[in-house]
Queue: 3 jobs
Job 1
Amino acid sequence: MLLIAGLGNPGSQYAYNRHNIGFMAADEIHRRHNFSPWAKKFQALIADGMIDGEKIILIKPQTFMNLSGQSIGEAMRFYKLGLGDLTVIYDELDLAAGKVRVKVGGGSGGHNGIKSIDAHIGKDYRRVRIGIDHPGVKELVTHHVLGNFAKSDSEWLEPVLDAIAVNADYIVKKDDAGFMNRVALATGGKPEKTQVEKSVAKPASQSHIRQARVQKPTVNIPKSGPMADMLNKLFGKKE
């Protein structure tokens, strides 16, 4: 059994906030894979279903974002799950809008929902981060994340949510590179590099003066005529 958590704030007034993109992704997975109806448990809404032959519990904490760890921790303990059994989907300011990245563990990046989860259960769980872009100024962050998506955002938002749901089996298989590649291709982006390319060593660059000293020009000297006589005087005639 695996637990997939989408983060957000409960209530219709927050439903289309950028901060609620985790809820939106969970809802799309729920719809796409025909999960059971949402039920209240663990201070959350939960539903169960099957993806790639694995039983999945979807959870949307209803404790408000800053207390997400209370709900998720309670569910983890009830189902006796380890950190490797949890995937959390949430908004990421430090990614361009529509970009999706996956990592295991690491810092919270200032995200209060992640801070709460880290405090309750630890850090080494899988994180699916969906970019919502940064407003550019720290003072505007709260307004940005709690603001609604613009109508124009639907051009990238809907394809990203659909791609996450369609390729949720890669999350279940813990194939992070495969998941990111599939989502990137489905949304018109470039696939992620899964291997480190070997770089070819280049010779150390030289100054223009040094190059001029080392590289001797090739001169084609005419064999006869006035020009040949002048050039022979300049460069020396080889007998």
Note: DSSP finds nine helices and seven strands in the chain.
Job 2
Amino acid sequence: MYLPAHFSETRTEVLHALMRARPLAALVTLAAGGLDANHIPLHLSPQDGPLGTLRGHVARANPLWRECECTSGVAALAIFHGPDAYITPGWYPTKAHTGKAVPTWNYAVVHAHGALHVVDDRVWLRAHLAALTAQHEAASAQPWQIEDAPADYIEKMLGAVVGIEITITRLTGKWKTSQNQVPENQAGVAHGLRERARDHDLAMAALVEEAARGRVVR
């Protein structure tokens, strides 16, 4: 990933926060037929390893796990996408004076690298699924739990999936949030995003404002 220094986000806690908030990752591996990409919700365990561990599961019918079934693991890249937004040059006050402005796209993204290992174990799978469910049911008025379904049905479902685990060895974050703009343009972008207020605009406005408060424009 091309990463100019002023767009680099290195704080592990910030990267982890995005991974937890937007857990559906594009999981890229190199298979016998070439590059393969699967879209999988991954559960982050930040305490397991220096940079954390990602755990997920795939359908037993998915060839991914057979391609990766080896003792040394297979190199994998999990890509987590944060907010993104189109930025019009009309939001830059400096445009009125110089005309020197072009459209761009702001975004936040995390790349997590590590070796992917297959875990074909029902006890592991049940614990993983309980953790994953608990995380995403936490905001529900009546959180669903595995025990809410019939035991024989759960056993059948467990047999239909295979676990995957990635101990993260490298984390890269890119926060392209108008850090390369002067303060008045950063303010204009944040205001424009809040006025437009569609899709990820409000979340991106908050990131632009955070960058304006805490980063030096290069």
Note: Helices lie at 12-21, 64-67, 95-98, 122-137, 151-159, 183-196, 201-214.
Job 3
Amino acid sequence: MGFVGDWSTRIVTLALPRPSVERMLAREPRLGRDLELLPQGLTPEGSHPVLFSFGTLHRSRMSWSSAASSSLTYEEMAVVVPFVASRRRSARTGTPLPRVYLPRLFLNATVPTVGGWLYWGFNKVLARIGDTQEDPGRYDVRSLVAGTPLLSLRWEAPTEPYQPVSEVPAFQAMQEIHEQSLLGTVGPLLTSAPWTKDWSQGTVRGLSAELRLSAPFVPGLEPGHHTCAPLGPDHVLGAYQLRVPFVLALPRLEP
């Protein structure tokens, strides 16, 4: 039981300085001091991967609702920090499982924003998000009230077709990240929610993209411009488009 739908997204992964990523964890108002980065082998020592997902959730709804009466399609941009764990874990839990922490999510729909706060404890805020259907090749995120540019993604139209994820070896490292549960907070408690994808129906393709960070909306994330090569054998952290059905389960307490 949980939140279900189809996810279509464009993702860029950056290797950022580890101290900067640690500042993103520390900004969590209730449990920031209890979160830590785990060792990982995707980026060089002293750095940590951070994903920027510019996506659309299609026909999304709670699993017990009627798809015809309550489904929503909306834009959601997420900053994604994988390989995170809690310092509070008991010695009985053994080696911690890597989780994903979401310092910020921007949405253009009220219902999933409020639902994300209440049920999962995610850091969601409403924003103005560019309509990718009217302006192909661009995805802009601006503040809701003032319209201040926050970040944007621009890309070249891919010529290669989508491929099943099982046929793209370079996607394996990213697939492992997408299988990590999502951390959230309910009151003073740390929770995690499994976000399961139906990889048998998932498809992916490489993408040439430019990521522009226009404002420091998260501590540790500095403004700048990044050119991103397509995902491939030589660029396992490259940019890509992903389409896959999903189920976001209800949260459970972390050990």
Note: The chain has a mean pLDDT of 90.
